Amino acid sequence: MSVTVVGSIAFDAVKTPFGERERMLGGSAVHFSLAAGFFGDVRVVGPVGDDFGDAEYAVLHEHGVNTDDIERVPGGRTFFWAGEYEYDLNTARTLDTQLNVFGDFAPKLSDASRAADTLFLANIQPDLQREVREQCGGVQIAALDSMNFWIESTRDSLLKTIAGVDMVLMNDAELRMLTEEPNLVKAAAAVRAIGPRVVIAKQGEYGAALFTEDGFFALPAYPLETVRDPTGAGDSFAGGLMGYLDSQGGNADDATLRRAMAYGSTLASFWVEEFGCERAERLTRDEIDERYEQFKRMTAIESVPAT
Amino acid sequence: MSVTVVGSIAFDAVKTPFGERERMLGGSAVHFSLAAGFFGDVRVVGPVGDDFGDAEYAVLHEHGVNTDDIERVPGGRTFFWAGEYEYDLNTARTLDTQLNVFGDFAPKLSDASRAADTLFLANIQPDLQREVREQCGGVQIAALDSMNFWIESTRDSLLKTIAGVDMVLMNDAELRMLTEEPNLVKAAAAVRAIGPRVVIAKQGEYGAALFTEDGFFALPAYPLETVRDPTGAGDSFAGGLMGYLDSQGGNADDATLRRAMAYGSTLASFWVEEFGCERAERLTRDEIDERYEQFKRMTAIESVPAT
Predict the structure, then answer these.
(1) E-only strand ranges, B39-124
(2) Are B180 and A178 in contact (CB under 8 A)?
(3) Are the CB atoms for B267 and B21 separated by under 8 Å?
(4) Average pLDDT for B65-90
(5) In chain B, whose CA is at the least distance from the CA of A244?
(6) In the predicted model, is pLDDT for residue B70 greater than 50?
(7) B135-162 pLDDT per residue, tens
């Protein structure tokens, strides 16, 4: 089994109340692939410039991420984002966006990437997402993320793209915006009516909720006393979730999806403890499994006694 | 075992995108006591005016709520609140507040109310909460709710009152405001450092989180396609929670607290399906237990298989 992810590869400048970094490895496809890499083979597809060097490749390679489909554009510069988080860490204020090579990105997938069992279309232009989806005819599970920008500017294309995937992972506010439905249960049902069998609403510090034909499931976020930088939380959540699903042989019944969400939340909890991918770089699968078990105990309701 | 609740008894005018009511039974002590009444004996303490009539008493009596300590002020009028909820139902806009008899409220507890095992100090002036707490020396569990208004205007008194109770149930935003700590885990720890053994953060549509010495627990809200009026959600949550705890003989270990939270969330989910107490008025314990069981299944993460 293997996962292919298509999305942004970036350098980020981030400032939070707990510190700042001027230039660190980032981008949705990077966060996703590092997280998914703990569960199996991952191939990352995205463009970089000349400034993307051996040190950056090394981080990906050390986590078993295959970088053959990273397209290096000669003379180009890598996507750059600068943002700042306020006191409560809930919303990022964008200070600078330089699309650079990402502005002309046309995904080119190798045969190996097209042959993946699991496909994740990170938050990019929905026409590109759909092209990639069409190139990967044999995937068992295809999932996508998107955001307010695409809902506003390319709504029809996004709806067409959503119709062609099995799972949608989006922020709850964006699911509401997309469907113009303030009730999340109805919003998820409206997205499922377009085609996807599974809708997962990311809820930031409140966790995530799962909607399928069989019903509803929700998980809080893993409680942390120290959150230093929320950048990459959503993408590492998606990476842990999709990586775990892929490791289960494409089984995506509700029980497997629930465990996958708990793994996703576990990965995201490590991510936000430090800046960018810094915590991820020295994370181990044992640490992940240990926190997963803790997390499961934290969310269990014991049976009511007979009294 | 029995529960005493002290708080507001009111008439509410409420408008939501799903309808409106010009004058319906409300107030935190009413919502709380109707919810707690499904689990055992409840006594409600609060003031009303001449306009509080047989019909209103009847709703309470039909749910087994003892109204002996409702103080009827001759010539007075009952507390009145008018509010409107916007499209997303998250925040109420207050249109009118008439304190009426509630403005001069000085709680007078009968011996029977003072002898309760479980005490809930609903959201009223913290000096009054503390006076009541001191009158009820023998309670096994005393809990309180509060709000931004008291944090801003009577902060020192509120902190003193919190020091004297076992449990605090407040909105997460208000716990953050009270402790000036944006991280909820730290905010809960700061409240526990003042005295209470248990802190429960109400998180509206996202559910609720529990903080004790032993750790953390969180529950999503029960998912509903139709929420018509969120008025009373927090108080019915508290009522279900405290009522269940009282029914367990004052046992408030973590397992019992988790079940109590699930009962609280279950009660709140019925409450918001209709206006005010309307759904509550014909609710049965069987319906509560059925939804509680459903809810438990909705939040269970199955064990990871051996693979």
Answers:
(1) 41-48, 65-66, 70-72, 79-85, 92-98, 118-121
(2) no
(3) no
(4) 93
(5) B304
(6) yes
(7) 999 999 999 999 999 999 999 999 999 9
User: How far is the alpha carbon of A224 from chain B, nearest alpha carbon, in Å?
Assistant: 6
Q: What strands, in cross-sheet order, belong to the sheet with A79-85?
A: A19-26, A10-16, A79-85, A92-98
Give the Cα-Cα-Cα angle B243, B245, B250 (nearest 5 degrees): 125
- Which pLDDT does position B86 carry in this prediction? 86
Contact across the interface for A258 and B296, Cβ inside 8 Å:
no
Secondary structure of residue B95 in the 3-state scheme = strand
Quote helix, strand, coil % in chain B, to nearest 5: 40, 25, 35
Task: Report chain B residues whose CB lies below 8 A from the CB of A218.
Answer: 207, 220, 223, 298-299
Residues of A in contact with B227 (CB under 8 A): 183
pLDDT of residue B40: 96
| CB < 8 Å to B225, chain A | 183, 185-186, 189
The pTM (predicted TM-score) of the whole model is: 0.94
Q: Mutate one of A301, A302, A303 to test the B interface: name it (highest B CB count within 10 A).
A: A301
Indicate the DSSP class of residue A139: -
Asked if B215's CB is within 8 angstroms of A298's CB, the reply is yes
CB contacts, 8 Å: A252 with chain B? none
Average confidence score pLDDT of chain A: 95
Query: Looking at this protein, which amino acid is placed at residue B44?
Result: V
Length in residues, chain B: 307
Q: So what's the pLDDT on residue A222? A: 94
**How far apart, in whole angstroms, are the C-alpha atoms of residue B226 and residue A168?**
23
Cα-Cα-Cα-Cα dihedral sign, residues A251, A256, A257, A262: negative
Q: What is the pLDDT of residues B114-123, one digit of tens each?
A: 999 999 999 9
Residues of chain A with Cβ-Cβ distance to B179 below 8 Å are none
**Which chain B residue is nearest to residue A261, measuring alpha carbons?**
B301
What is the rounded average pLDDT for all residues in chain B? 95
